[in-house]
What does this fold into?
Amino acid sequence: MMVHSSFPEFLYNHNVLFSYYGYINKNILNEALKIITVSLKNNNESTVVSKRLYNTINECVENIIKHNFFPDDGAVDYRSLLLVSREHDHYLVDTINIVNTRQKESIHRKLDQFMSKNKEDLRNMKLDIISNKQYSEVSTAGLGLLDMILKCDGYHYHFKNYNAGFLFNINFKINSTAYGTT
Amino acid sequence: MEPLNIKGDDISPDIVLNHYENIFSISGESRPENPLKYYERVFSWFNDYFNYFYVLNDMRDSDIVVTKKLKIDLDYFNSTSAKVLFDLFTLLVNTGAKKFRINFEIDWYYHADDLDMLDAGKEMEALCGITFNYITKD
It folds into this structure.
């Protein structure tokens, strides 16, 4: 997890495909997806891996933008970090953003619940949310997370005290070799 | 009633619903800012179409059952769009097929090596009870 090591150390030890630190919005997301897509294409990465990375980056950033992984304490532009890197046989998608105590508890609860379940249970949870008759931002809030967890090959998250709030770091691992990367 | 044409962009799909030419298609990428709002006109169009079809049948004193195909050719759709697509397929089954005798089948396009997209279609098919035809593309 990135918040355990220093940022320069992380950059030195990983092949960074994309990094951004600042206020994250849809424009940043679109640029990130374009750059990553070109990079993966140049590396002849497989369709499955490329699309999983695409999905993970998209859902991670959408979670930051939309699903309240963002302090609700006024119109303050908190900076977030998006980092996509490659290490030997897998890719890592890392995000770091600031959350408050209430959000930390909510994220903790959700992720702990997901971690206690096997893939079959998670898949059923995902289908339950999709088929829930009442559409709302709240009802779909966990859907992106679930989808990423089901498609990735591992994930970690970590909170670290930061001023009055917390730094929330989550990273998703996506294997490349299993799908015949050239 | 008029056909519906929505020109998409990098984040939103092209939508063509043209009953005169028998073209029903959603294609491109689906991760619009607000998927529910983006697809609102699609839901509205299908509801109008079902009523239009009903009136047409009534005028002809016909009770024929027709089968139509909705082409879903998406390179990517985000999790919120998945929810909206489910709602659309459910509308086609619960309202179109059951109430108005229009059976829609889904032509689900996917790249041959994109197994996640194939799985997504199979999940939707099992969930909605609508017939999916799986079509590979280059």
Notes: The mean pLDDT of chain B is 92.
